[in-house]
Amino acid sequence: MSTLALSTAKEVFDLLRDDLRAIERELGRDAVSDVAAITEIADYLREGGGKRIRPSLLLLAAKAQGYEGQGMVKLGAVVEMVHTATLVHDDIIDAADTRRGRPSANTTWGNAKCVLAGDWLYMQAFHIALEERNFRILDLLISLTQQMVEGELLQMETLGRAICETEYFDLIYRKTACLFQVSMRLGSILAGATDEIEDQLGEYGRSLGMAFQIVDDVLDLTASEDMLGKPVASDLREGKATLSVIHSLENGTEADRGAIEKVLLDQSFDRVDHAEILEILNRNGSVEYAMAAAFRCAEAARQGLAALPDNEFKRALLWVPDFVVARDK
Amino acid sequence: MSTLALSTAKEVFDLLRDDLRAIERELGRDAVSDVAAITEIADYLREGGGKRIRPSLLLLAAKAQGYEGQGMVKLGAVVEMVHTATLVHDDIIDAADTRRGRPSANTTWGNAKCVLAGDWLYMQAFHIALEERNFRILDLLISLTQQMVEGELLQMETLGRAICETEYFDLIYRKTACLFQVSMRLGSILAGATDEIEDQLGEYGRSLGMAFQIVDDVLDLTASEDMLGKPVASDLREGKATLSVIHSLENGTEADRGAIEKVLLDQSFDRVDHAEILEILNRNGSVEYAMAAAFRCAEAARQGLAALPDNEFKRALLWVPDFVVARDK
């Protein structure tokens, strides 16, 4: 990350500092259950951090449109809780050992408790959202969660095989972009946006989320384990073909395709090693291809902001897509 | 079951036949997802049957108060879906092999898909409930689901050890009675009941649910595998102490307590066999003790109906507690 970007990240953070702190306090309050195991797991997940990018988007969307109420703190906590709930269940499904550089919750508490902790977090998120007494908000959150759950199931059915770009884009929409989109929509609803503006900001969130996930998938292949806080190429190890891999599958030689398919099928680098895959991706220009797609999504995101009045929150929203595609972890 | 009871069961069923059929159609429509695995699992679960006792209670509560709208069909499907979602996740947690005499869903589709199918069913239930555009209904459903999830976690923490009656009653409230209570409340809300009547009918549901679960737990110990559609004494095999077992733990000899604790700890009948446990329970009058508690709950349930006008639906509600405590499977 360049010094310039860092300084801008700090500026954006400063802009949201008080609200993000309020969201952390809200998350702390919301994680408390009569049942010790739930509070323990919820605390562990909350303390694991994460970028809080979804609540930040919701805050920026609301504040860019002049909203000043407390709803954005509540709903910021809600989108983070929904996100966390999906991670807990996904880690069970992927039998993940680590998450954000720490043992995943299922490793510590076991699958059974984590199924229930995930359920509880979903319900707690809806419980907080219900306090807004706004049906549109609930419609969005419930339909979002269904999309995400369906996406995870669809992904399971693709494991170990080549998929096409259409399948890939549908999967990352459900996995990531849908929640980015809903975060922007929720901020807009709080601010009393027209349907048109809400749709445009939703499009911003969707495009940004697509860019975010494409870059995430590239970094999974190209970054180091230290950077990622998890083993490199874990997507391939789980049998998942991401955009650059799909590009090499479709544009590489027969041998390239054969090598990639072996890794997908084996869900390991036993027969073909990681370096060989990287060589294939680089030789076919597949990493650049994926990054170009991410840049296009980032540009599309910025265009969704056209109708917003100029203010520091809009400027922050304009900057976020650059940050997302330029990050190295 | 006596002939008299059977004939009354048919009368109750006749009273609700059209609405229950409408609920089955609604459940069929609601189980459809773009994702084949979800539709498959949801169909499998729906076709597994079950007594539809929760939707029946909701229908009776609404109709006893003169309600005639379509909301009761929708919400009847909702409570059944919430129930099914909890069963799917519970079967994962208990690593159950069978459910209602068939392989449990997790045996066929694996835990990962069933975590997601359960999530999806919860969301679909809320999605349908949202159509009623009534916040009270959503408050009840979300808080119910949290109670149930917490109950399952609390239960996990009791496995393998003796518990006291207070713990037992809290667990069965969360596991069963809470959803019976909410079903009665939802029917009342649809019918526009006063808070007082809603509370009274909620109490009916709670007491009935307690009676239902106490009897279920007794049957698990005393009925045959053919009757149950699952192995006998599966609670003890999972390390769960139920009411009659708690009674013998607290009122039996040192040797009785030792024998029961061995089974709970081992989660098997390897050191102490099932017949020996039944002998302990019978000698201490523990089965009668549990059934007496169930009869008291059934009586308390009936008292919750005092304020209802006399009609065939009230008469059906008066009959249900007798049915619940007299059933042999």
Task: Explain how this protein is built.
The structure is a homodimer of 329-residue chains. Chain A has 329 residues and is mainly α. Chain A has 2 domains: 1-135, Farnesyl Diphosphate Synthase; 154-321, Farnesyl Diphosphate Synthase (Orthogonal Bundle), CATH 1.10.600. Chain A has 15 helices and 2 strands. Chain A has helices spanning 3-30, 36-47, 53-64, 71-93, 105-130, 135-158, 165-190, 195-222, 225-228, 234-237, 243-251, 254-266, 274-283, 286-303, 312-326, and strands spanning 98-99, 102-103. The first copy, chain A, has a two-stranded antiparallel sheet with strand order 1-2. In chain A, strand 1 and strand 2 (102-103) form a beta hairpin. In chain A, helix 1 (3-30) crosses helix 15 (312-326), helix 4 (71-93) runs parallel beside helix 6 (135-158) and helix 6 packs antiparallel against helix 7. Chain A is globular, with a radius of gyration of 20 Å. The relative contact order of chain A is 0.11. The model of chain A has no long low-confidence stretch (mean pLDDT 93). The interface between A and B is large, with 38 and 38 residues. Chains A, B: Its cofactor is Mg(2+). Chains A, B: This is Octaprenyl diphosphate synthase. Chains A, B: GO terms for molecular function: metal ion binding; prenyltransferase activity.
